[in-house]
Amino acid sequence: MQxxxxxxxxxxxxxxxxxxxxxxxxxxQLFNSALGGGGLPVxxxxxTYLLCENKQDQDSCGECANCQKMAKLIHPDVHFIYPxxxxxxxxxxxxxxxxxxxxxxxxxxxxxYSDINDWVAYNGYENKNVLISREDSRNIxxxxxxxxxxxxxxxxxxxYPEFMHPAAANGILKVLEEPPTQTIYLLVSYAYDNLLATIxxxxxxxxxxxxKEEVIKDYLVENKGIDQTTAEKVAxxxxxxMGKAIxxxxxxxxxxxxxxxxWMQMCLKGDYSGLLNVTEDFVRSSKPQQxxxxxxxxxxxxxxxxxxADNNELVNREGAEGEFIQKFGxxxxxxxxxxxxxxxxxxxxxxxxxxSPRITFMNLSLQCSKFxxx
Length: 374
Description:
Elements: H1 10-21, E1 28-33, H2 39-51, H3 65-71, E2 78-81, E3 84-85, H4 93-110, H5 116-123, E4 130-131, H6 134-144, E5 154-159, H7 166-171, H8 173-177, E6 183-189, H9 197-200, E7 204-208, H10 213-224, H11 228-237, H12 242-251, H13 254-269, H14 272-284, H15 287-308, H16 319-331, H17 334-352, H18 357-373
Parallel strand pairs: 1-6, 1-7, 2-5, 5-6
Antiparallel strand pairs: 3-4
Helix pairs in contact: 1-2, 2-3, 10-11, 11-12, 13-18, 14-18, 15-16, 15-17, 17-18
């Protein structure tokens, strides 16, 4: 991957290139990214640039042997550390690493703007606890002790360092602070506040800002071949997340709106038998689908609030969907809409902390029913 393939983020790209040209490359860099942001693509592109044999003014050449290997994420001097299930026995670690690395390379190349929930669903890890284990930290220490094979640098890209087991984090502190010559760590975090202070203090931090709405729209038009109107609508709903925009584009259909409408109608009627069935449908869906369903619901509630406040120019809904939003906003009271909005947001937080989807969603449905019927 090259910098040119990442839309926007021009200042960050220039800063990274300048650090190389000025010989001021920090040995440990932390990319603090929003979910669905450019943290991982930036890290991979910077690694490609550092290893490129024919660097251009602001990017890698994309044609040399090192660039070709980086395009497939198979360069022998670039090592990936990422959350995965723990090996049942330490002797099984190498086998697990080999099996997951092939999947990781495909996943990172095809879905660079994805997050941990997408990775979990991609591998079918929903019922497993994923983390960066103590064995991973030992692998890091073993890796940095070896000489590089081809490039001037040996690069370790650590995706989601906040998923490090405390023993793993403590285990790499020394090599993180005093790495061998020409060894560079690129950490990509999506929850900076959850990182150990000892990790943060040993890294140079780069904030990877959310994508601008216009940047997302142009990217979807140019790379996904969709029309301007659809791209503008998806970009507006993405809240700066390229990952969410791509997901919405691939999965968006009328079913999402119809599911929300039916759910709210059941809440209004107090149809508890129906809500039980909806809850079971929710439980059977994957974690990314659960998250996107709730985020889509939040977006619809937001538009209902705007419609109630007569800010229809900010409501990007058309046809039956737009008509329902206006009716729903006209019927439900503003306090009820605000409480539903907050309850769905809290539900997302509970699910992110691995709360029971069945209990969490059913409780949310009962709360929505109470707010709409009071």
